[in-house]
Automatic annotation (TrEMBL):
UniProt record similarity statement: Belongs to the cytochrome P450 family.
Entry GO MF terms: heme binding; iron ion binding; monooxygenase activity; oxidoreductase activity, acting on paired donors, with incorporation or reduction of molecular oxygen
Gene3D superfamilies for the chain: Cytochrome P450
Origin organism lineage: Bacteria, Bacillati, Actinomycetota, Actinomycetes, Kitasatosporales
Species this protein is from: Actinacidiphila oryziradicis
Alphabetically ordered keywords of this record: Heme, Iron, Metal-binding, Monooxygenase, Oxidoreductase
Pfam family, one: p450
Name the record gives this protein: Cytochrome P450
InterPro entries xref list: Cyt_P450 (IPR001128), Cyt_P450_B (IPR002397), Cyt_P450_CS (IPR017972), Cyt_P450_sf (IPR036396)
Region (Disordered): 66-90
Length: 411
């Protein structure tokens, strides 16, 4: 089987439920070239090296014309400038520093920690919402609404507007996970309308916060002054959109993949129910074992790079298969076993280097609280179907629905 054939199989929906045997085949050639000039990197140490290499760019404008033509077209056309996720230093560093000031250390060290009580209440309310049902779709009923509610509270979206915000988030999320039975033009139109309405709404909210700031992150982004100056209104908009989309999508998958893995490992589920402190190492192992972001397809080289006996030429498109690196036996002992007691678990679940996931502390806490509460509250939970139906998206891999039966809720 050629490497090109392997990549087509990995991105083929038919293999979404279990791509890991294909990743094992891919790792036999750590850096492989595809027929269209695309380079795929599949082993841990090579991925880690390139994530820290300043000759690797996240800005698609640096792709050669041939490589740009081969890159998948993403459903996110927008008038906003690129978020810092898609920029290189020094612009990336400036915007990331400015966003970090109101979000985490050293300037706001307790922003995430202080949300713990509110996050726990949101989780408890969502589980209470299961009511007297004995079956739920964990994705629709829990893992989708949870993170977008959290982002609403983080940004300071007024409570009465949260339902509208949820609707926009759901529409944008659907555009990232296309249904092959839908008309792509209609999907693009609906998604663009949602982005436009969201942008108009956030612009109005930004104007309000400029005049009357509150104790929320959007106010801090609007009014913040530091060594890097102040964000422009368009940069605030772009950053808020990044927090919504990136923060929402990855956490949905982390929680859904996590519960699926726990139900497949009932001994670990029982341990978590009896010992909530297990949640911390358990979530780290989930990020290795079933990462919510499987691969990074939008990297390019700023110079020729020699790695693993291969030269990747300047301007080439490079795909870093994080999920494959996380199962690399050269880095992890018995990598296909789910082991929450694993030591030295330096996974690639949140990437690495300057683009290491900005929202990782919040995503970790959300997953820890969510999985602990689900393990505690659901009586005798079990999968209705295994494997469940997966999302179409090969990058953001997770169940589209996760139907769980259970024998009532514990108090």
């Amino acid at each position: 089987m050629t490497q090109g054939t392997l990549l087509r199989q990995i991105t083929d929906y038919a293999n979404r439920a279990d791509p890991y045997p294909l990743y094992a085949e891919l790792r036999k050639t750590p850096v492989s070239q595809q027929g269209d000039g695309l380079f795929v990197v599949s082993t841990y140490w090579e991925i880690e090296s390139l994530l820290h290499d300043p000759r690797i760019s996240s800005d698609v404008r640096n792709l050669s014309p041939q490589a740009a033509g081969a890159l998948p077209q993403e459903e996110e056309a927008t008038a906003l400038p690129p978020s810092f996720l898609r920029l290189d230093p020094p612009e990336h560093d400036r915007l990331r520093r400015m966003t970090m000031r109101p979000f985490g250390p050293p300037h706001s060290p307790r922003r995430v920690y202080n949300m713990r009580g509110e996050l726990a209440r949101i989780v408890s309310d969502l589980v209470d919402g299961f009511g007297d049902r004995n079956q739920v779709d964990l994705v629709d009923d829990f893992s989708y609404p949870f993170p977008v509610t959290v982002i609403c509270r983080l940004l300071g979206i007024p409570h009465e507007d949260e339902a509208r915000f949820h609707s926009w988030a759901d529409t944008i999320a659907a555009s990232l996970d296309p249904n092959p039975d839908e008309d792509p033009r209609e999907r693009r139109r609906v998604a663009q309308q949602a982005r436009t309405e969201l942008g108009v709404y956030l612009s109005g909210l930004i104007d309000e916060r400029r005049g009357a700031p509150g104790d929320d992150m959007l106010s801090a982004l609007v009014t913040g002054h530091g060594p890097d100056g102040q964000m422009t209104p368009m940069e605030v908009l772009s950053t808020a959109a990044l927090l919504l989309i990136a923060g929402h999508e990855t956490t949905v998958n982390l929680i859904a993949n996590g519960m699926l893995t726990l139900l497949r490992n009932p001994d670990v589920l029982k341990r978590l129910r009896d010992d909530p402190q297990l949640a911390v190492p358990l979530v780290e192992e989930l990020l290795r074992f079933e990462p919510p972001v499987q691969l990074l397809p939008q990297r390019t080289t700023l110079a020729d790079i020699d790695i693993a006996d291969t030269t990747i030429p300047m301007g080439a498109s490079v795909w870093l298969v994080l999920a494959s690196g996380n199962r690399d036996p050269q880095r992890f002992l018995d990598p296909d076993r789910f082991d929450p007691d694993r030591r030295d678990n330096q996974h690639l679940g949140f990437g690495s280097g300057i683009h290491n996931c900005f929202g990782a502390p919040l995503a970790r806490l959300e997953a820890q609280l969510a999985l602990t509460e689900l393990a505690r509250r659901l009586g005798n939970p079990r999968l209705v179907e295994d494997p469940p139906p997966y999302r179409q998206n090969a990058v953001l891999r997770g169940p589209r629905h996760l139907n769980i039966a259970f024998d009532g809720l514990r108090a």
